[in-house]
Design a protein that fits this description.
Length: 451
């Protein structure tokens, strides 16, 4: 093949077709910039993934959004997407030591309220402006504490401690002794300092047609500009950048050359590159000249988030329920998401993906018996995001020191390379909203740099 084909010329190359990559491509395409999106997977969406399993369209990855999340909600309105929620809980189970207690969801919320209120009472002092989260120069002090340390300071009774810990595992998908307290402050500050609103904003409302509807709508609008080319099964193998642009090499979906170029697979020459990889993947990207240490250190440390998300179909009918155990159990939180006439589908979260195989029916059945032994597990399903080579993390939860030490550096461009990801958002980091926020900001910066 000729040299021109080997070195295709574009304005911008976007690495990754998750929500951030697709939104960035849409915005650039609307401005008339020739943009190619290179996605390693054979599907769109990244860590958002609607898949048909257990007889339902299930969210294997990112799920929830809310009107307090401005960027995601703008997308909901832009495309006329319908928002719904799971069935309201009629029963709630929790543990006091090894004793299973049962009541209403209000009973549980009242149980955790004193601990949540005390833990988060100074949120707006620490993070007065969530859109400018590094504004407080003293925030590094709070970033040195773990959530576990701050909970321990409260000296809560055992039932309250277990309940609060389980609630935070549901939020953070990680062992609490590895989670910076700043994560809790940022989430709560984004909900105006109110923990009840934070809980609702992060765990209740979802798209009726699944996140696939949002992903498809963004991709379709991007491609409709005539300036955006989205290429699946095209993992980037190397980025060589200089003052004028970057040469991006990509393979055939298996990290192998696919018959063109000089042995590194296909190549594209771009004036700018937007990298949308999550924090844990940055140290695995072959970049010449190498990325600065400020970007590589947090990637080597890895995020705190390392948990499991399981979908479980049980025989019905059952009443919709919530269940909370503790962070030391394989599953810390379980709730009903879908009700049928003769079955129900539950979603569950645990702090550590190595403790349970989300595709092992027997292991899931045993984990549910912590609360109740009357559920007949029919099928299970999920995805090990930690083992997925294209993610290596679930949603962003940072370790102590990572946010104040590296957030600004992770957001900063490196020459012609720019970085956008839900991990790099100012407000709702780790959420769909954060991916849209980051992509919108970075695509504007890229347009301005090219102008």
């Amino acid at each position: 093949m000729g040299t021109e084909q080997q070195h295709e010329q574009v304005d911008v190359a976007v690495v990754g077709a998750g929500v951030a990559g697709l939104v960035a491509a849409r915005e650039l395409g609307r401005q008339g910039l020739r943009t190619v999106v290179l996605e390693a997977r054979d599907r769109l969406g990244g860590r958002t993934w609607t898949d048909h399993r257990l007889g339902r369209d299930l969210e294997i990855g990112g799920t929830w959004l809310h009107w307090t999340q401005p960027h995601a909600w703008a997308e909901v309105n832009r495309y006329g997407l319908e928002v719904t929620r799971g069935p309201r809980s009629e029963e709630t189970y929790w543990l006091a030591g090894d004793e299973v207690r049962r009541g209403t969801l209000d009973d549980f919320m009242n149980l955790i309220d004193p601990g949540m209120t005390r833990l988060l009472e100074e949120t707006m002092t620490w993070v007065p402006r969530p859109d400018d989260p590094l504004r407080n120069p003293d925030l590094a002090k709070a970033d040195a504490w773990t959530v576990q340390e701050k909970l321990a300071e409260l000296n809560l009774p055992e039932a309250e401690r277990n309940a609060n810990e389980a609630a935070w595992v549901g939020h953070f998908n990680a062992p609490l002794e590895e989670c910076s307290f700043v994560n809790a402050l940022r989430w709560t500050a984004a909900a105006a300092g109110h923990w009840h609103l934070m809980h609702e904003s992060t765990a209740i409302f979802r798209l009726a047609g699944g996140t696939k509807g949002l992903v498809a709508a963004v991709a379709a609008e991007a491609e409709s500009t005539g300036n955006v080319d989205i290429r699946l099964s095209s993992p980037v193998t190397r980025l060589a950048h200089d003052a004028d642009g970057a040469t991006v090499s990509y393979g055939d979906g298996h990290g192998r050359p696919n018959g063109t170029g000089n042995g590194n697979g296909r190549t594209v020459r771009a004036r700018r590159v937007i990298v949308t990889l999550g924090q844990n993947l940055l140290d695995g990207l072959d970049v010449t000249p190498a990325l600065p240490e400020e970007k590589l250190v947090p990637a080597r440390e890895k995020t705190a988030s390392q948990g499991a998300k399981a979908w479980i179909r049980v025989r019905g009918p059952i009443k919709p329920f919530f269940a909370y155990s503790s962070q030391h159990h394989p599953l810390s939180v379980v709730r009903t998401e879908f009700l049928g006439e003769d079955d129900a589908v539950l979603v569950a979260f645990g702090a550590d993906a190595t403790r349970i195989d989300v595709n092992d029916r027997d292991a899931i059945d045993a984990a549910l018996k912590v609360w109740r032994d009357d559920l007949e597990v029919l099928e299970v399903g999920g995805h090990d995001w930690m083992a997925d080579p294209h993610s290596r993390e679930t949603w962003l939860i940072q370790r102590p020191g990572q946010f104040t030490g590296h957030h600004a550096a992770l957001q900063a461009p490196v020459g012609v390379l720019h970085f956008a990801s839900g991990d790099l958002a100012n407000i709702w980091a780790g959420f769909i909203d954060g991916a849209v926020e980051s992509a919108t900001r970075v695509s504007r910066q890229v347009r301005e740099s090219l102008a």
